[in-house]
Amino acid sequence: MCLIAKNQRGYSSPSKNYTSPTQYVDEIDKIVFPDFIENTDEAMFEQLVFELSNKYASKNYKDLDREELYNEKGWSDLEVLCLLKFYKNKWSIQIPDEKEYFPSFIFTYSLELLNKEIQSTIKKAYQVIKPINLETILKKRELFTALDITYLLHYFVINHDDYKK
After folding, report:
1. d(Cα 17, Cα 106) in Å, to the nearest integer?
2. Among 78, 137, 140, 156, which is least packed, fewest CB within 10 Å?
3. Domains in the chain: boundaries
4. Contact (Cβ atoms closer than 8 angstroms) between residue 157 and residue 149
5. Helix (H, G, I), strand (E, B) or coil at 3
6. What are 24's strand-pairing partners?
């Protein structure tokens, strides 16, 4: 379903918070990932993201609108943390025929707007894991929506070198 590419040269920087005239801070840098995510080896991590991409595809979200995706629960804290780690590592994915994968409204989003939406997901994740509690994460709470996942996966796709050609 997808091909993973690590550290693409043309990867766009996430939105930054203005903190001083000379300093910017990425929201993603505020998140401290649990050790079991931070220390996951690359091959295992790639497999996890591949499986999450397949899970997304199997749910056939492409015909849903923004509101319907927002109401679609079913994504655990752990799954979103894995995708956010992928985001932090600045990796990208290639999905053949992405118009059959993503809902049509997502193709109207500029990179700037997509970054803004991802920052909301990051802030939500930060609140979820701020007091890091592995027991809570492993309970498989489903606080994230298909819309959060759509923003992240599409961002990974549009930052793949082949997409830019």
Report:
1. 24
2. 140
3. 61-165
4. no
5. strand
6. 18
